[in-house]
Amino acid sequence: MSIYSIILFFYFLKIVFSINNCKENLNYCTHCNILTNLCSKCEKPEILIPDEKGGCKGANKCFSGKHFCNECNDEGTLCKICEKNYYPDDNGGCTYSEGCEISYMGECLKCKDGFALIGKVNELRICRSLLIDNFKNCKEINYEIGSCKTCEEGYYLTSSDHKCIKENNCKESLFGNCISCNSGYYYDKQENKCKLKDYDFLYCQQTINGKDCDICDDGYFLDENNICVQTPFCLKSANLKCEKCISDYILADNFVCTTTNNCSIGSQFTSLCSICQVGYYLDKKDFKCKSNLEENNPLKHCHVVENNECIQCEYGYYLGEDVKCTNTKQCAESENGRCLSCSKDYYLGLDNKCINVERCIYSNYDTCTECEEGYYYDKLNKTCLEITQQFMNCKSSCYDDNNKCCECKDNYYLFQNDSLCYDNTKDPRFAKCIYVDLLGNKCSKCAEGYYLGKEDLKCCKVQNCKIVEDENTCLECTELFCLDVKKQICVDNDLLHDINDKMYIACNRTNEEGTACEQCINGYTINENGLCSDNDICEEKKDGKCLKCKDGVGENGYFYCANEIFGCLENADEGCLRCDNLTDLYECTEYKEGYNKTNSEL
Questions:
Q1: How far apart are alpha carbons 421 and 116 in whole angstroms?
Q2: CA 145 to CA 303: how far, in whole Å?
């Protein structure tokens, strides 16, 4: 190859690597590499090393007055204060920032247009471009941590990286958060996104923790397992109560849908009546309620009829040999057809029958609750039997199988795998437990006066407890409850029960003295009064107190109003500006012009 060809070859390489701009005697470089156009040797190599841009950078040593540094830190490894428009880097030198417009002593005071000053006051802050993905479609920025706070309309904030994304399955949003989804989807508040309904969330509208449903679809309500089940004959329900019934049914005082044809309770799975009102019997032929009060009627005092014969009598009566409902045998005293007391050695049961159980000490309704020492109660045959090894420490057998124990004596639990009774004082997991699951590692039911921890399944005296330390101590309450550490009780944190208990509002747990909140629920922070306040949606503040909240409808159709102590609160009254009555946080104390207490525009 000729010398001319070699020169052309190196010239070609120089053009290829022209993205790097190395020039000798510039940027502290004393020699450039002709092949890569990068610096290969820097001034004072003990201080500077080549960088990837064709110049030199600090080598983890700081020298005051050199490399744009005015003052080093105490260790002499990093620059503390840089020259104008330069910022300390990780190598002991200073780096130029294209986004800074005004700086002083190494600290940027103002950024250029299109840049935002990110970082806490009195700490190192940098100018970041507003064109990066983190700020796209962002309406309000949290400049302290450098992330988006609220999104533009139609975009929703992700909980993981705080970016604004477009959620096609969202039906309604508020302040950059989706609050309701399209049909077939439910809203996961923890992830702030609409998810396709599956088996666990089939009739769910919203979940807060991503595990349990918190708001069900219309016509459904949450049962004790946080599963949405259908309300019998109910068309629309909320907060575990029916609000509107289907056609031909009415809403009773106990929020149960009742038919106008004398039906008291309908079947959960069909549109048929299952229990009639007093004075009527259920005819299983057409499932209609018919009167049972007529004199000389063979079905008088009957409760259920099948094939024109009574199969169950109403309370206080039983079927006699003539298949008619008659009053109780062995009754010593009665009034208005009801037995009040039974003769000697008999007990008054729930069905108003007088029953006799040999060796029974106490009886409740139609069941013996305690036999003599050394005996257990056989529920199937309704008799007290002598205890064998199989029924050691057993109180009673099962209704459907008298060869198994179904209830143990006090301080014993029933292991459902072998139906034997075990001492519940020997294992801290089962203290005050009366039933243990088939695997033998979880309590499924606690003794009277104790409650099962929702998460760790241990028994505790504290109701609505989620995590238990021992039978007397709760560590964490369930959702919507605040743990009063001093009193060891879980208190509803959504309502103000007493003016002195305002520390419970939006609080997860109190301090040990029980005088202030120590930890608030998500979205709330502790203020100077030791209470939880929400000022994120506050539009106007004065002296740290919220005077006016941003417009917008909250979840379930609620509206926001300003409260002097708690910031912005949800209020049922549309057009409400303020709600400062601490004895009733839902009472509106000031309305917008054109609104009143009827919650409708004038």
A1: 69
A2: 69
E strand or H helix that includes residue 15: helix 3-16
What is d(CA 188, CA 178) in angstroms, rounded to the nearest whole number? 9
Distance CA 501, CA 429 (A): 33
CB within 8 A of 257, min separation 6: which ones? 231, 232, 233, 234, 242, 245, 246, 249, 250, 251, 266
SS3 6: helix
Can you tell me the distance from the alpha carbon of 269 to that of 287, in angstroms, rounded to the nearest whole number? 14
Q: Which three-class secondary structure string do you get for 348-377?
A: ECCCCCEECCCCEEEEECCEEEEECCCEEE
Angle 168-174-177 from CA coordinates, rounded to 5°: 55
Give me the torsion for CA of 588, 568, 205, 171, rounded to 10°: 100
* CA of residue 339 relative to chain centroid, distance: 49
Cα separation, 208 vs 127, in Å, equals: 36
Count CB atoms within 10 A of the CB of residue 38: 18
CA separation for the pair 391, 384 (Å, rounded): 12
What residue type is assigned to position 161 of the chain? D
pLDDT at 11: 47
Q: Which long-range contacts (CB under 8 A, 24 or more apart) does 132-141 make?
A: 133/163, 134/161, 134/162, 134/163, 136/163, 136/164, 137/164, 137/166, 138/164, 139/176, 140/176, 141/116
Tell me: the pLDDT tens digits for 280-295?
Answer: 899 888 788 888 888 7
Cβ neighbours of 272 (radius 10 Å):
14
3-state class of 288 per DSSP? strand
Nearest CA to 533 out of 583, 569, 559 is that of 569
pLDDT tens-digit series, residues 455-492? 888 999 999 999 988 888 999 998 889 999 999 999 98
501 closest CA partner among 522, 520, 516: 516
Distance from C-alpha of 290 to C-alpha of 305, rounded to nearest angstrom:
10
Judged by phi (left if over 0) then psi (alpha if -120 to 50, else beta), residue 210 lies in left
Q: Which two tokens stand for residue 566?
A: 């708690």
Looking at residue 20, the DSSP 8-state letter turns out to be S
Taking the complete model, does pTM exceed 0.70, yes or no? no
What digits encode the pLDDT tens for the residues 195-228? 888 877 888 888 888 888 888 887 677 766 777 8
Coil, strand or helix at 177? strand
